[in-house]
Task: structure prediction
Amino acid sequence: MGATHVTVAIRNPAQPDRTWEGLFLVDTGATDSLAPRSCLEAIGLEPRGRRVYELADGSELVLDVTVAEIEFMGEVVGGTVIMGSDDAEPLLGVTALESVGIVVDPLNQRLKRLPAVRLKGLGIR
Result:
């Protein structure tokens, strides 16, 4: 299976003119998105907390997180962004994808927009 990448803009919600843009690996195994700490700090984002994350090998890391606007494919979503090491590859997590109704087409490894954002199980009619 190949890797899927997408251009993503990370924006400081308190100062929307401060934005960092990069090429992100789409990681459906990651809940949250991740960007290099130095890039986030350059647009004025600071740690808002720490979370424990489990890696693929079962080990755990405690990492700083912040909150940002995440923009890709013409969509904007507010979300948690992990403040990764400065050499970390940026990752777009599944929460951001699903929040705007975008999934990875497993056949051709491309992002695909669903006809509607899923809202099952809320009892809304």
